[in-house]
Amino acid sequence: MSEQIKCIGCGVPIQTEDKEGLGYAPPSSLKKEAVICQRCFRLKHYNEIQDVNLTDDDYRKILSSIGDTQSLVVKIVDIFDFNGSWLPGIHRYIGKNKLMLVGNKVDLLPKSVNKNRLKQWMATMAKEYGVKAEEVHLVSSAKGTGLQEVAEQIDELREGKDVYVVGCTNVGKSTFINGLIKQLGTEQQDIITTSYFPGTTLNLIDIPLDEETALFDTPGIINHHQMAHFVSKDELKIIMPKKEIKPLVYQLNEEQSLFLGGLARFDYIKGGRRSFVCHISNDLNIHRTKLERADDLYEKHLGELLTPPQDREKLPPLKRYEFMIKEKDTDIVFSGLGWISVKEAGAKVAAYAPEGVAVTLRPSLI
Ligand code: GDP
Known about the structure:
The protein is α+β, with helices and mostly antiparallel strands. Helices cover about 25% and strands about 25% of the residues. The structure holds guanosine-5'-diphosphate. The site of guanosine-5'-diphosphate (GDP) has 17 residues, from helix 6. Guanosine-5'-diphosphate binds near residues 141 and 220.
């Protein structure tokens, strides 16, 4: 039966039901003598790493095994979804190994963003999560920006050890690794292998770095609390910017509200007429209304006027966070969507996001 058939590339048991899962192969391929899983197939023929989804348990096993190795851990985050794309518990799992933090999708930021400040903020957030980042880098895996520098830094930081690349789904880990393979040169491209991870039944893709060491791709975990999971695949294209975002300025009076589609809400409560700058996907509709009408509007028009999401059933209720903005130049960050910048101190605001999605303050990046 299909459970007994193993992939000739990596050795995982073949299954034909879950296309996104480990060991998937199309049913027709079972007729062949040598069966290869889709992930190995893509790697072999297209030199492409494909992500597979794992259960949380499997993932924890992989992560904790990394703690037993001597290696460099490269953690990829999506800079538009720092909190949502953080791997919970990573600080416990990496052991004594060094960690390099790579923020992906830098091509989406407006040119005016201060990259050093963003890196500092990432390092601070990592610290809050209990991890010391040896280095923080910003890259665009899609455009190739910053990859060469990262490749060089990896080589330096790893001090001759193995490298493990970790990240949750959708951060662009596959795109990153594919880009890195290009940096490594054709020699490596031809000798990519897949290998078992010692102590688990999970396979990792292994890209030789030299005779003894390798870079391992770990499968991505699904972080269930990401904004991305509350919308459909098509809607994700709306909320995830495709190109550099253009900041949008809103002049608001006290007691006015903004809806970011139906996924988030911002109330300006007190502090005199002033401007707020929205840094979100330019395809996402912003709807302005009076604060006193906002609850009613949301109740009546979520999924129509206020969209995405069209399917309101998938969306947990919005949770309210109230802030007094005490510092000038503050960003209110809606993880997975973007942020709203406040120039002057002294504003009382409330920010709402689906339960589980982080809303945080940080010094402005601009
Ligand atoms: P994985 O699930 O972490 O392996 O992520 P993928 O590599 O499949 O990428 C997830 C999504 O992010 C895809 O839609 C990619 O096109 C997009 N993506 C990946 N890297 C970048 C990047 O550097 N910039 C932008 N704008 N999008 C990216």
